[in-house]
Specification:
alpha/beta, 17% strand, 335 residues, binds uridine-5'-diphosphate, globular, UDP-galactose 4-epimerase, domain 1, 39% helix, 11 helices, Rossmann fold, 2 domains
């Protein structure tokens, strides 16, 4: 299959590109390198530097490479920034996304897999979270992802676009080549590992949540498991596949949570990192971060049932171990 991966130079995108490439697919990356890294793109995979939201660029890239399916990983993804600058998030994640859909529609590309987020659920009423629960985001980031999900839905209804929408929980870990290197980094595991490596103090945001040790619980999924799910999802958009295919002439997105179905508290993450790194990590308890739910755990049942996907690397030690090993390869520190 000839697949375009938007954001293929980013964290999730680059590991997924490795997986698709190894599986023998013809992969092309489109990335504007605003947060991605040129060196993350595996050898032999063409990198087009540009924006999926630019109509001329997307039309040219789809046509030149005779693309059959798009994996849309590119987005703005920082919650705090989305609250301070919603215009940027609507422009990139919504308006840019619609430009991508339009390029696909006019170019006759009818298959998409979209990276959405558990942030679409907002403050869920119960856990584990199933896909049919209400989507009431509490930040602009989640709202723009939800809006684009709906765009895909109506393009499927009217134009026969086949789609899989993945709602990611907390992605962690690394491949041998690629890992998480955001700037600024806001995520817990890379920050814990930075604290372990440099001897700086980590602030845990609150210890008065309704959990056994008082710190928030999150569902971590290994980025390599996530990458494998994308491969399975792209296959599920094959013309003729009933999982994404038309019913009564209309295509309906297959929406799946991607998580391990298990949770670890922030303190448990710190302890696991201490074991991996063999050092004591200095921590202090700070105030809660705005909008942090006590517990976020996915029901991963639908992805198992419909796609046949199950996490293979769901121990937190393995996730943190791989992230630590990748950190030691060096270039993640520079980002
Ligand atoms: N967290 C923390 N200190 C940090 C960064 C994160 O205590 O320096 C906590 C955060 O409040 C949440 C958990 O770690 O409870 C996971 O946060 P992250 O930003 O990694 O992912 P999120 O769940 O927000 O998507």
């Amino acid at each position: 299959m000839r697949v375009l991966v938007t954001g293929g130079a980013g964290y999730v995108g680059s590991v997924t590109v490795e997986t698709l490439h190894e599986a023998g697919h013809d992969v092309v990356v489109l990335d504007d390198l605003s947060t991605g890294h040129r060196q993350a793109v595996v050898e032999g995979v063409p990198l087009e530097v540009g924006s999926y939201g630019d109509p001329a660029t997307i039309s040219r890239v789809l046509a030149t490479h005779r693309i059959e399916a798009v994996l849309h990983c590119a987005a703005k993804s920082q919650v705090a920034e989305s609250m301070a600058d919603p215009a940027k998030y609507y422009r990139e994640n919504v308006a840019g996304g619609v430009a991508l859909l339009e390029g696909m529609r006019t170019g006759g590309v009818k298959r998409i897999v979209f990276s959405s987020t558990a942030a679409v659920y907002g403050m869920p009423e119960r856990t584990p979270i199933t896909e049919d629960m209400p989507t009431i985001p509490i930040n602009t980031y989640g709202e723009t992802k939800r809006t684009f999900e709906q765009g895909i839905r109506w393009y499927g209804h009217a134009y026969g676009l086949r789609s899989v929408i993945f709602r990611y929980f907390n992605v962690a870990g690394a491949s041998e080549r690629n890992g998480e290197a955001h700037d600024p980094e806001t995520h817990l595991i890379p920050k814990v590992l930075a604290a372990a490596a440099t001897g700086t103090e980590l602030t845990i945001f609150g210890d008065d949540f309704a959990t056994p040790d008082g710190t928030c619980i999150r569902d971590y999924i290994h980025v390599r498991d996530l990458a494998r799910a994308h491969l399975m999802a792209l296959e599920a958009t094959d013309p003729g596949d009933t999982r994404t295919g038309p019913r009564d002439g209309r295509c309906v997105p297959l929406v799946c949570n991607l998580g391990s179905g298990a949770g670890y508290s922030n303190r448990e993450v710190v302890r696991a990192a201490e074991q991996v790194a063999g050092v004591t990590i200095a921590t202090r308890i700070g105030p809660r971060r705005e909008g942090d739910p006590d517990i976020l755990i996915a029901s991963a049942a639908r992805a198992a049932e419909i796609l046949g996907w199950r996490p293979e690397h769901d121990s937190i030690a393995e996730m943190i171990g791989s992230a630590w090993a990748w950190r030691k390869t060096g270039w993640g520190d520079k980002a």
